[in-house]
Amino acid sequence: MFGFLPYGPFNKQGAFAEALIARADRIAEKPAAVSHQQAAAVATAGVTAIQSLRDLGALGKGQHVAITGVSGGVGLLAVAVAKRLGATVTAIGSGRGLQLAKDMGAEQLVDRTSVAVPGSVNGKFDVVFDPAAAYRWATWKPSINPKGHYVTTLPSMGFAVDKLASLFASTGVHFVNVKGRSADLQLLGRWLTEGLHVHVDHVVDIRDVARSIARLQKGGVVGRIVVDVLGKF
Ligand SMILES: NC(=O)c1ccc[n+]([C@@H]2O[C@H](COP(=O)([O-])OP(=O)(O)OC[C@H]3O[C@@H](n4cnc5c(N)ncnc54)[C@H](OP(=O)(O)O)[C@@H]3O)[C@@H](O)[C@H]2O)c1
Fold first, then answer.
1. CA of 198 to the centre of ligand 1 (A)
2. What phi and psi, each to the nearest 5 degrees, are found at residue 182?
3. What distance in angstroms lies between residue 131's CA and the mean position of ligand 1's atoms?
4. N or C: which end of the chain has fewer CB atoms below 10 A?
């Protein structure tokens, strides 16, 4: 099986444990051909990307999406999800993340460390997905098509103000609150068997997890970190 425990900004989340209890409708069977490492890496970030782009953003074939934070677990998988939904992708990020986003199929790359975002990002977008939670809807608004959507992963005072202002605008402003859902995990499982590869920055033994968390907080991790609880990876 694979999946994740209930996740949200207001509840304690996650666990590093040999065994846990989860609701059956929130997890899914891991396809035999998919490694435990890839299944672990894809779950939270992949479902967040699906629910942000497909469900909140209504992203579909032929549409254009801008995705930030592509070095991050969510941002990089969002590029993969957007390509599978048939969209054209502008990836915004830095360093190695940009190359990985290109490998995932992103058509336009924007290095946020060398140009102003969103000011210098070319194009009009049907969806702006901001897993980096670094840019407000108010600044993206001129670049979003009418009836388009902006989706962020972190609630903030700025988001609350933008949400209110968007009531008088033609674009949707959303905060994703990811929910474990078997069907979404099954979709990810299928994509993994069809060739989706989740970039794993490193695998860490449970005993060294504090060091990895410190690295994650400092920045510079690309993709996902997988914690090896049973010493089997
Ligand atoms: N609400 C939910 O349901 C939900 C679900 C999952 C995750 N989340 C949240 O979503 C966020 C992203 O998750 P993640 O796992 O992808 O995190 P992550 O691996 O830490 O990635 C965040 C990425 O944001 C970019 N970034 C960092 N600082 C930045 C800055 N100052 N300006 C612009 N970009 C910056 C970096 O990529 P580049 O260098 O390439 O730009 C970084 O890799 C986290 O805050 C997480 O807690 C929320």
1. 16
2. -55, -45
3. 5
4. N
